[in-house]
Amino acid sequence: MSEVLRRQLVVYQQAVSPGLPLGAIRVMMYCWRQIYGLICMAVNHHLAFAFGDDYEALFEKMMADLLSKLGVLPSPKRRYLKVGPERQVTLQEPRGEAVIRNHY
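and the corresponding structure tokens:
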């Protein structure tokens, strides 16, 4: 990495987590940029002409790519949360079972 980037990451490292290696800081910044960028595009409707309000497939692909780059497999116990119009939360279990709870 360039000397300029290394110095910037050192400043960030000292402010956030002095014991964390610079390589880990660099990877964290890469992942954060990807996640934050997609969330900003969704919230600000930058790609609404193509995705409407449904970024789920794009988000899932991005997360799968990030996990793959990190050498991590997705959790088999992963849950999906969907909030309905009446503020009900649907937990979608990995086996396909849906559990509905009121969310206030």
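(Above: one complete record from the training split.) Helices lie at 3-16, 22-43, 48-51, 56-70.
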